[in-house]
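Could you help me review a protein record that somebody else here produced? This is what I was given.
***
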Amino acid sequence: MSPRMITGPRNGWSRRDLLRLGGLAAGVAAVPGLAACNSDSDGGGSGESVDLQFMYWGSTFEQKAINAMLKQFEQKNKGASVKPLYTPNDYETKVNTLVAGNRPPDVGYMGGSMGYRLAEQGKLVNLFPYFDKYPELAKRLPGTYFWHGKDKTFGTQTANEVMLLWHSKPAFKDAGVDLPPADASKAWSWDTFVETANKLTLDQNGKRPDESGFDPKRIRQFGVSTSIQYAPAWECFLRSNGVDVVDEAGKKCLLDTPEAVTVFQNLQDLMYKHHVAPTPVQLGNNAPATNVQLQTKRIAMAIDGQWMLLDMSQSKIDFGIGVLPSYQEPSTTQLGGASVVFSGSKHPEEAVELFLFHNDPKYVELFKNGLWMPLEMKYYTDPAAVDSWIKNDVHPPEYKTAVVDYTVNHATTAFGQRLKNMDKIGNVLTPALQQIETGKQPAKEILTALTPKIDALLQGWYPTQKL
């Protein structure tokens, strides 16, 4: 499956891909109740330390932060020792090897498809029985849980993320156009979005696509950049247009419906009809990250994830955040890789407490630094809790409406997090998305041929559960 699908880490992932799924934490205090680490009654016997392992992937930047968090956990909890297992490549292969050899880590990151498989095999701890003991675990955003049966969840997202519309303020100023709205109630229509992207697109002679003499082969600034291959970047538009990837039963693919075809044709037209977005050839195989392209004015807007805030805030760029354009209703995609506790842990109670520690904003600085969004609902609805992670120089003034409110009111969990048989579905879906992105065939032809292939693979949705 393409590494841009949200089903788990694969070889050759870029830092950008890993950020979409990974977890990052930097703890600074102990979780209340970690009594077992200081007790003579722990699983290792009297006087024996509690040795844990934490397995994760990510960039070297994340590696440094994770190791710092684990050190803090040890310092704050006498008797606890946590070994980091940094695994940037071949993650699933190495997890499978450890599980098969009865040597699993205690806590770790997990792609969705693999997590469901291991949970169904009894290899992961069901966290639902811990909800009473740790009420904060039961108060996370509904879409962040990985349910695989009634009262069964093998974990939650490590952190939450949503898709947004990033933009370069200088590019908008130069073009003399209004900035993207930061309030979902004022979201652009698709036509307004395209019109604005047109005004922001310039060829080497400074001509726009609607001007005589415009050269689509020599564009120096594109109005927008997006991906057709990366599902979270387009599934929100399907929902905005009144349709989903598959039906409510999870047994019928809806990608050949008129509403879905319209969305994909519009995305293809951005590249090949309107010439306001780079084609895969124009973008290149080693395109710079979104922050670099905005900074150099290669692009004026980008549909990308919230995780870009960390890089944006560290770049010398005057950027802004807007909500995505809307068809019928505002919509964005909510996504994130899982964190889990392995059932083979010799210290399951302490492992659960480490799990709670590693993504709690009270102990994790990188929620404030822009890489992650919290999981608990209070961080989106309680003013003091909201301020605790966004009231700083990293988060721009429009962040509250463009991201926090947008998430609570208009985010839907990525279909790849809940749809069964996602690995095999991705193997069929990805080549079709690549075809659409080449512009050689209309979206309708490709989606009409694709739909029955996906129908044959559909096995329904994994459940959801109200708490």
Observations:
- The longest strand covers residues 161-168.
- Residues 1-46 have pLDDT under 50 and may be disordered.
- The chain is about 35% helix and 15% strand.
